[in-house]
Design a protein that fits this description.
CATH class of the largest domain: Alpha Beta
Strand order of the largest sheet: 4-7-10-3-11
Radius of gyration: 26 Å
CATH superfamily of the largest domain: P-loop containing nucleotide triphosphate hydrolases
CATH topology of the largest domain: Rossmann fold
Oligomer: single chain
Largest sheet: 5 strands, parallel
Distance between the termini: 63 Å
Shape: elongated
Number of strands: 11
Structural class: alpha/beta
Helix content: 40-55%
Strand content: 5-15%
Length: 333
Protein backbone atom coordinates (compact mmCIF):
# COMPACT_ATOMS: atom_id res chain seq x y z
CA UNK A 1 0.00 0.00 0.00
CA UNK A 2 1.05 3.64 -0.31
CA UNK A 3 0.64 6.74 1.78
CA UNK A 4 -1.63 9.37 0.31
CA UNK A 5 1.38 11.62 -0.31
CA UNK A 6 3.87 8.80 -0.82
CA UNK A 7 5.56 7.97 -4.07
CA UNK A 8 4.59 4.87 -6.02
CA UNK A 9 6.10 1.70 -4.69
CA UNK A 10 6.53 2.91 -1.09
CA UNK A 11 5.41 0.18 1.28
CA UNK A 12 4.02 1.23 4.64
CA UNK A 13 3.19 -0.64 7.81
CA UNK A 14 -0.01 -0.50 9.77
CA UNK A 15 1.08 2.76 11.41
CA UNK A 16 1.93 4.43 8.11
CA UNK A 17 5.64 3.73 8.55
CA UNK A 18 7.84 3.42 5.47
CA UNK A 19 9.10 -0.12 4.98
CA UNK A 20 12.12 -1.33 3.06
CA UNK A 21 12.09 -3.87 0.21
CA UNK A 22 12.26 -6.85 2.60
CA UNK A 23 9.26 -5.66 4.60
CA UNK A 24 11.35 -4.33 7.48
CA UNK A 25 11.30 -0.68 8.65
CA UNK A 26 13.45 1.32 6.25
CA UNK A 27 16.79 2.09 7.97
CA UNK A 28 17.84 4.63 5.34
CA UNK A 29 21.27 4.56 3.74
CA UNK A 30 23.44 1.66 5.02
CA UNK A 31 26.03 2.69 7.58
CA UNK A 32 28.37 -0.21 6.75
CA UNK A 33 29.44 -1.85 3.50
CA UNK A 34 30.08 -5.32 4.91
CA UNK A 35 30.90 -7.35 8.03
CA UNK A 36 34.60 -6.72 7.36
CA UNK A 37 33.91 -2.98 7.19
CA UNK A 38 32.26 -3.09 10.63
CA UNK A 39 35.15 -5.05 12.13
CA UNK A 40 37.84 -2.80 10.63
CA UNK A 41 36.17 0.44 11.65
CA UNK A 42 35.53 -0.83 15.18
CA UNK A 43 39.18 -1.91 15.45
CA UNK A 44 40.30 1.55 14.31
CA UNK A 45 38.26 3.04 17.16
CA UNK A 46 39.85 0.69 19.71
CA UNK A 47 37.10 -1.95 19.93
CA UNK A 48 38.31 -5.37 18.84
CA UNK A 49 35.32 -7.26 17.47
CA UNK A 50 35.24 -10.76 16.03
CA UNK A 51 33.14 -11.73 13.01
CA UNK A 52 30.22 -12.70 15.26
CA UNK A 53 29.98 -9.23 16.81
CA UNK A 54 30.59 -7.44 13.52
CA UNK A 55 28.03 -9.62 11.76
CA UNK A 56 25.25 -8.79 14.22
CA UNK A 57 26.00 -5.05 13.99
CA UNK A 58 25.93 -5.26 10.18
CA UNK A 59 22.56 -7.05 10.20
CA UNK A 60 21.12 -4.61 12.73
CA UNK A 61 22.01 -1.79 10.36
CA UNK A 62 20.54 -3.49 7.27
CA UNK A 63 17.39 -4.92 8.89
CA UNK A 64 16.65 -2.01 11.26
CA UNK A 65 16.38 -4.38 14.20
CA UNK A 66 17.50 -3.75 17.79
CA UNK A 67 20.39 -5.77 19.20
CA UNK A 68 19.97 -7.46 22.57
CA UNK A 69 23.46 -7.84 24.04
CA UNK A 70 23.69 -10.17 27.04
CA UNK A 71 26.63 -11.33 29.09
CA UNK A 72 28.56 -10.79 32.32
CA UNK A 73 29.16 -7.25 33.53
CA UNK A 74 32.22 -5.58 32.09
CA UNK A 75 32.54 -7.59 28.86
CA UNK A 76 32.13 -4.61 26.52
CA UNK A 77 28.36 -4.48 25.97
CA UNK A 78 27.98 -0.76 26.62
CA UNK A 79 31.28 0.03 24.93
CA UNK A 80 30.06 -1.66 21.75
CA UNK A 81 27.17 0.79 21.43
CA UNK A 82 29.47 3.74 22.18
CA UNK A 83 31.99 2.56 19.60
CA UNK A 84 29.33 2.13 16.92
CA UNK A 85 28.14 5.67 17.60
CA UNK A 86 31.71 6.98 17.24
CA UNK A 87 32.50 5.23 13.96
CA UNK A 88 29.18 6.19 12.34
CA UNK A 89 29.27 9.80 13.54
CA UNK A 90 25.90 9.26 15.21
CA UNK A 91 24.65 10.88 18.37
CA UNK A 92 24.59 8.47 21.32
CA UNK A 93 21.38 8.68 23.37
CA UNK A 94 21.50 6.56 26.51
CA UNK A 95 18.66 5.36 28.69
CA UNK A 96 20.09 3.99 31.92
CA UNK A 97 17.56 1.55 33.32
CA UNK A 98 16.78 1.09 36.99
CA UNK A 99 13.98 -0.31 39.10
CA UNK A 100 11.10 2.16 39.19
CA UNK A 101 11.90 3.81 35.84
CA UNK A 102 8.57 4.85 34.33
CA UNK A 103 7.18 6.45 31.19
CA UNK A 104 7.79 10.00 32.41
CA UNK A 105 11.53 9.37 32.75
CA UNK A 106 11.94 7.09 29.73
CA UNK A 107 9.61 8.66 27.15
CA UNK A 108 8.31 12.15 27.95
CA UNK A 109 6.54 14.33 30.48
CA UNK A 110 5.09 17.81 30.58
CA UNK A 111 6.91 20.69 32.27
CA UNK A 112 4.30 21.22 34.97
CA UNK A 113 6.10 24.14 36.65
CA UNK A 114 6.32 26.04 33.38
CA UNK A 115 2.69 25.20 32.57
CA UNK A 116 1.60 26.51 35.99
CA UNK A 117 3.43 29.80 35.46
CA UNK A 118 1.74 30.17 32.07
CA UNK A 119 -1.69 29.47 33.61
CA UNK A 120 -1.10 32.02 36.37
CA UNK A 121 -0.06 34.65 33.86
CA UNK A 122 -3.16 33.98 31.76
CA UNK A 123 -5.38 34.18 34.83
CA UNK A 124 -4.17 37.70 35.54
CA UNK A 125 -4.96 38.75 31.97
CA UNK A 126 -8.39 37.08 32.15
CA UNK A 127 -9.28 38.78 35.44
CA UNK A 128 -8.43 42.17 33.98
CA UNK A 129 -10.68 41.56 30.97
CA UNK A 130 -13.85 40.31 32.69
CA UNK A 131 -15.07 43.83 33.45
CA UNK A 132 -15.79 44.60 29.77
CA UNK A 133 -19.17 43.57 28.17
CA UNK A 134 -17.62 40.86 26.02
CA UNK A 135 -15.29 39.79 28.80
CA UNK A 136 -16.81 36.33 29.53
CA UNK A 137 -16.76 35.31 25.84
CA UNK A 138 -13.20 36.46 25.41
CA UNK A 139 -12.19 34.69 28.62
CA UNK A 140 -13.64 31.39 27.37
CA UNK A 141 -11.75 31.71 24.10
CA UNK A 142 -8.59 32.64 25.95
CA UNK A 143 -8.75 29.53 28.13
CA UNK A 144 -9.18 27.33 25.05
CA UNK A 145 -6.13 28.97 23.52
CA UNK A 146 -4.30 28.47 26.80
CA UNK A 147 -5.01 24.73 26.80
CA UNK A 148 -3.64 24.44 23.28
CA UNK A 149 -0.63 26.50 24.31
CA UNK A 150 0.45 24.62 27.44
CA UNK A 151 0.30 21.27 25.64
CA UNK A 152 2.62 22.40 22.86
CA UNK A 153 6.25 21.59 22.09
CA UNK A 154 7.42 24.47 24.27
CA UNK A 155 6.25 22.62 27.39
CA UNK A 156 7.25 19.08 26.38
CA UNK A 157 10.21 17.44 28.14
CA UNK A 158 11.52 14.75 25.81
CA UNK A 159 13.23 11.82 27.54
CA UNK A 160 15.70 9.45 25.81
CA UNK A 161 13.18 7.27 23.92
CA UNK A 162 11.24 10.17 22.42
CA UNK A 163 14.44 12.09 21.81
CA UNK A 164 15.88 9.19 19.81
CA UNK A 165 12.73 8.72 17.73
CA UNK A 166 12.25 12.32 16.69
CA UNK A 167 15.91 13.19 16.13
CA UNK A 168 16.65 14.26 12.56
CA UNK A 169 20.32 13.38 13.01
CA UNK A 170 21.67 9.80 12.99
CA UNK A 171 21.22 8.21 16.42
CA UNK A 172 22.49 5.20 18.33
CA UNK A 173 20.07 4.46 21.16
CA UNK A 174 21.59 2.59 24.10
CA UNK A 175 19.12 1.08 26.57
CA UNK A 176 21.53 0.00 29.30
CA UNK A 177 20.77 -2.81 31.77
CA UNK A 178 17.27 -3.44 30.48
CA UNK A 179 16.95 -6.40 32.86
CA UNK A 180 16.49 -3.88 35.68
CA UNK A 181 13.23 -2.63 34.18
CA UNK A 182 9.85 -3.69 35.48
CA UNK A 183 7.65 -5.62 33.07
CA UNK A 184 5.31 -2.67 32.44
CA UNK A 185 8.16 -0.43 31.29
CA UNK A 186 9.63 -3.27 29.22
CA UNK A 187 6.27 -3.56 27.46
CA UNK A 188 6.34 0.17 26.71
CA UNK A 189 9.79 -0.17 25.21
CA UNK A 190 8.68 -3.12 23.11
CA UNK A 191 5.76 -1.12 21.72
CA UNK A 192 8.04 1.73 20.69
CA UNK A 193 10.66 -0.53 19.10
CA UNK A 194 7.98 -2.37 17.12
CA UNK A 195 6.87 0.69 15.14
CA UNK A 196 9.49 3.34 16.01
CA UNK A 197 6.74 5.80 16.77
CA UNK A 198 5.17 7.37 19.85
CA UNK A 199 1.61 8.56 20.34
CA UNK A 200 1.29 11.72 22.45
CA UNK A 201 -2.43 12.37 23.05
CA UNK A 202 -2.07 16.17 23.05
CA UNK A 203 0.23 16.35 20.00
CA UNK A 204 -0.47 13.27 17.89
CA UNK A 205 1.86 10.56 16.62
CA UNK A 206 5.60 11.17 16.38
CA UNK A 207 7.32 8.89 13.86
CA UNK A 208 11.05 8.33 13.46
CA UNK A 209 12.72 10.33 10.70
CA UNK A 210 15.30 7.55 10.43
CA UNK A 211 15.35 4.26 12.30
CA UNK A 212 18.06 4.52 14.99
CA UNK A 213 20.54 1.77 15.71
CA UNK A 214 19.36 0.34 19.03
CA UNK A 215 21.42 -1.65 21.55
CA UNK A 216 19.77 -3.21 24.61
CA UNK A 217 22.21 -4.53 27.21
CA UNK A 218 21.44 -7.10 29.90
CA UNK A 219 23.47 -8.65 32.71
CA UNK A 220 20.99 -11.54 33.00
CA UNK A 221 19.68 -10.52 36.42
CA UNK A 222 16.21 -11.55 35.27
CA UNK A 223 14.67 -13.28 32.27
CA UNK A 224 13.44 -10.89 29.59
CA UNK A 225 10.10 -11.44 27.87
CA UNK A 226 9.89 -13.67 24.82
CA UNK A 227 8.19 -10.85 22.92
CA UNK A 228 11.17 -8.56 23.42
CA UNK A 229 13.65 -11.26 22.47
CA UNK A 230 11.73 -12.04 19.26
CA UNK A 231 11.95 -8.38 18.27
CA UNK A 232 15.75 -8.28 18.59
CA UNK A 233 18.86 -9.74 17.09
CA UNK A 234 20.74 -11.58 19.84
CA UNK A 235 24.39 -11.22 20.77
CA UNK A 236 26.08 -12.87 23.74
CA UNK A 237 29.34 -11.32 24.90
CA UNK A 238 31.33 -13.57 27.20
CA UNK A 239 34.81 -13.05 28.59
CA UNK A 240 37.22 -12.91 25.66
CA UNK A 241 39.68 -15.63 24.72
CA UNK A 242 43.25 -15.34 25.92
CA UNK A 243 44.49 -14.06 22.56
CA UNK A 244 41.69 -11.52 22.20
CA UNK A 245 42.08 -10.18 25.73
CA UNK A 246 45.83 -9.85 25.18
CA UNK A 247 45.16 -7.80 22.05
CA UNK A 248 42.57 -5.67 23.88
CA UNK A 249 45.13 -4.87 26.57
CA UNK A 250 47.81 -4.00 24.01
CA UNK A 251 45.36 -1.79 22.10
CA UNK A 252 43.78 0.03 25.04
CA UNK A 253 46.76 0.48 27.39
CA UNK A 254 49.39 2.86 25.98
CA UNK A 255 52.99 2.03 26.84
CA UNK A 256 52.42 -1.57 27.91
CA UNK A 257 54.99 -4.14 26.80
CA UNK A 258 53.96 -7.22 24.88
CA UNK A 259 55.31 -9.38 27.72
CA UNK A 260 53.29 -7.58 30.40
CA UNK A 261 50.12 -7.65 28.28
CA UNK A 262 50.53 -11.41 27.89
CA UNK A 263 51.12 -11.91 31.62
CA UNK A 264 48.11 -9.79 32.57
CA UNK A 265 45.83 -11.72 30.20
CA UNK A 266 47.09 -15.09 31.47
CA UNK A 267 46.74 -14.21 35.14
CA UNK A 268 43.23 -12.80 34.66
CA UNK A 269 42.22 -15.87 32.69
CA UNK A 270 43.44 -18.14 35.49
CA UNK A 271 41.61 -16.08 38.14
CA UNK A 272 38.35 -16.51 36.24
CA UNK A 273 38.64 -20.28 36.73
CA UNK A 274 38.45 -19.82 40.53
CA UNK A 275 35.22 -19.78 42.54
CA UNK A 276 35.07 -16.04 43.17
CA UNK A 277 32.15 -13.85 44.21
CA UNK A 278 32.92 -11.62 41.21
CA UNK A 279 35.22 -12.55 38.36
CA UNK A 280 37.35 -9.74 36.95
CA UNK A 281 35.77 -7.99 33.98
CA UNK A 282 37.57 -6.77 30.89
CA UNK A 283 37.34 -3.20 32.15
CA UNK A 284 39.00 -4.26 35.41
CA UNK A 285 41.69 -6.08 33.42
CA UNK A 286 42.44 -2.79 31.67
CA UNK A 287 42.47 -0.90 34.97
CA UNK A 288 44.97 -3.40 36.38
CA UNK A 289 47.17 -3.21 33.29
CA UNK A 290 47.18 0.61 33.45
CA UNK A 291 48.09 0.44 37.15
CA UNK A 292 51.07 -1.79 36.42
CA UNK A 293 52.25 0.56 33.66
CA UNK A 294 51.97 3.58 35.99
CA UNK A 295 54.06 1.68 38.59
CA UNK A 296 56.73 1.05 35.96
CA UNK A 297 56.25 -2.72 35.87
CA UNK A 298 57.50 -4.34 32.67
CA UNK A 299 57.30 -7.99 33.73
CA UNK A 300 55.13 -8.89 36.69
CA UNK A 301 56.07 -11.31 39.47
CA UNK A 302 53.79 -12.97 42.02
CA UNK A 303 54.51 -10.39 44.73
CA UNK A 304 53.72 -7.44 42.45
CA UNK A 305 50.53 -9.17 41.36
CA UNK A 306 49.39 -9.69 44.96
CA UNK A 307 50.16 -6.06 45.87
CA UNK A 308 47.91 -4.74 43.11
CA UNK A 309 45.10 -7.30 43.16
CA UNK A 310 42.75 -4.82 44.82
CA UNK A 311 42.47 -3.07 41.45
CA UNK A 312 41.30 -6.30 39.83
CA UNK A 313 39.16 -7.90 42.55
CA UNK A 314 36.58 -6.20 44.77
CA UNK A 315 35.84 -8.66 47.60
CA UNK A 316 38.10 -9.57 50.51
CA UNK A 317 37.35 -13.27 50.15
CA UNK A 318 38.26 -13.09 46.44
CA UNK A 319 41.52 -11.31 47.26
CA UNK A 320 42.49 -13.97 49.81
CA UNK A 321 41.66 -16.83 47.47
CA UNK A 322 43.51 -15.24 44.53
CA UNK A 323 46.58 -14.48 46.65
CA UNK A 324 46.84 -18.14 47.64
CA UNK A 325 46.57 -19.25 44.03
CA UNK A 326 48.88 -16.70 42.43
CA UNK A 327 52.07 -18.54 43.31
CA UNK A 328 50.77 -21.47 41.28
CA UNK A 329 49.83 -19.39 38.22
CA UNK A 330 52.33 -19.60 35.34
CA UNK A 331 52.92 -16.13 33.91
CA UNK A 332 55.12 -17.24 31.04
CA UNK A 333 53.82 -18.76 27.80
Amino acid sequence: MTDGDGSAGEVTGSGGQLLGPLGFPDPGEPRFDSVADVRERLAASGYLADDGIAGVVHLADRLAKPVLVEGPAGTGKTELAKSVARITGARLIRLQCYEGLDESKALYEWNYKKQLLRIQAQRVVADEGTASPDGPARAGSAWQDLEDDIFSEEFLLARPLLEAIRSKDPVVLLVDEIDRLELETEALLLEILSEYQVSIPELGTVRAHRIPLVFLTSNNTRELSEALKRRCLYLHLDYPSLDREREIVKTRVPGITAELADQVARIVRSLRTLELKKHPSVSETLDWARTLVVLGVESIDAEQAKDTLHVLLKYRSDLDRAAKELALVPTEP
